[in-house]
Design a protein that fits this description.
16-stranded antiparallel beta barrel, mainly beta
Length: 405
Amino acid sequence: MLKHFLAVMLLFVLGVSTFSQSIPSGTGRYTALGSSPFILDAHVDMLNNPAWNNMYRDYAFADLTPETGAGFDGHAGVTFGVGKKWNLGFIVNRRSDMWENFRDTSNNLFPGNSSPIVPFMGLIGTSVNKNFHIGLAPYVAMWSRKGTSSDTTATNTDASSNSMGANLGFIYMIKKGWVEGNFTFRMNKYKSESTTGSVTSTLENDGGIQFGANFRGWIYPSKGSKVALVPVLGFNTMSFQPKSTSGSTTVTGLNYSWMSINGGVGLNWPIMDDIQIAGGVTAFYNTAKADSGNVEIKSTDLIAPVFHMAVETRIADWLTGRLGFQKGINSEKNEFTAGSLTGEVSELLAHNSSSISLGAGFHFGRFSIDATVSERWFRHGFNFLSGGDNEDMFGVISASYNFAK
């Protein structure tokens, strides 16, 4: 078991490039590398698959700013080993659901869908044997608002929304490499009751089930190969229907549904201990549909090909430079049908306007700070450091601390 664990950690050294005792990771690093699915990242991998909890024991991580221009409203997590085979942890304040899409029967966004209290995800992992590792991540996020009055003519309100579910993931070791899979289940629900006198009106949703399955491999074509072949495949879906009930009358809204399928293949190539290169091609097929009776609104996106390239190099023991590239072609089509009336708009456009990303990592023993570097830094220069320019020097900022013995 110990020999196998050391072999696995050596693989992570090649894929992640540890600096001193730190393990650089986070959305700051991941975004700087072009959000490439063909790299290893402790923080991001645990968000996607709780089985990675088994590989990164005794590790704290956080996103201080989750996106460029955002305040300090990110998320944080920690993992710790319990005995030789069990691992526990949690992640707080990170959304992992789709309830922000909830709408009522009038097609208005439900008021509580964008303001949950601190979302919580637990991490439970174990090594079944030397080749098979599993992880479970229970998840909960909720919001509520209640208003009452002693005035019999006033309207009392009671509204709530929540998302509950779990992620179940695995990692299976094959020779030098591995394959991983993660299954996501969420039950998203909202309900709002308004009572005036003896009359109660209820707004809620039917359905709301969210399901996803994502897989990735890390395969070496030959025994002595250092270049890993990395295939990825994913599927996600969700659907719900709003309804409103007042007395004995029930009104239903549109049936909403989303589906996404993605796949791709790439290469990860560590050059010595100082440089890592990863690149590949992915494709995405996304559909969003709302229909009721003879009315249907449908949007379809085929994003293919999407090219990824990531380069990470150690400049000094305490400093890492990163460069990422991502660019794709989006074939978008929007369709509308209402009885005999139809309409369609098709468009061919770039998948993302910003294709090149830059980043830096700062490593101090077991501690690491990783961030994307704002392109405005190159336009305005070191005026950032003086504070005379009201611009951001860094975009997404992540931090991590490896306290493993």
